[in-house]
Amino acid sequence: QVQLVESGGGLVQAGDSLRLSCAASGRTFSSYAMGWFRQAPGKGREFVARISWNGGNTYYADSVKGRFTISRDNAKNTVYLQMNSLKPEDTAVYYCAADPRGRLGWAKSQYDYWGQGTQVTVSS
After folding, report:
1. Nearest to 107 by CA among 22, 44, 47
2. What is the pLDDT of residue 1?
3. How far apart are CA 20 and CA 6, in angstroms?
4. Reduced to 3 DSSP states, what percent helix, strand and coil does the chain have, rounded to the nearest 5?
């Protein structure tokens, strides 16, 4: 069983930055692919970014490419999402997710474990 706990959300103005963290339990975290997803009010949960087990392969949704950066520290069992140049349309609950099989994909169904989410609100 893997537990994921997100932190770092908050209320910011457009153009500001935030860094989200996701702390994972479990001794095999370093073998997991990790992803970030988000869900805005009234919308479905959408893919944001994902990172391979060793951090060497990353992939982003077009809507965040060039503004967001996903990274991980396997020694700390933590994955991060650095969000720069935030826009009001980035407002959502952000979730981290883990794929113990380490696959490189962005489908929600691929990820077995999910955190509770952290709220990010960007005002204009």
Report:
1. 47
2. 81
3. 7
4. 5, 50, 45
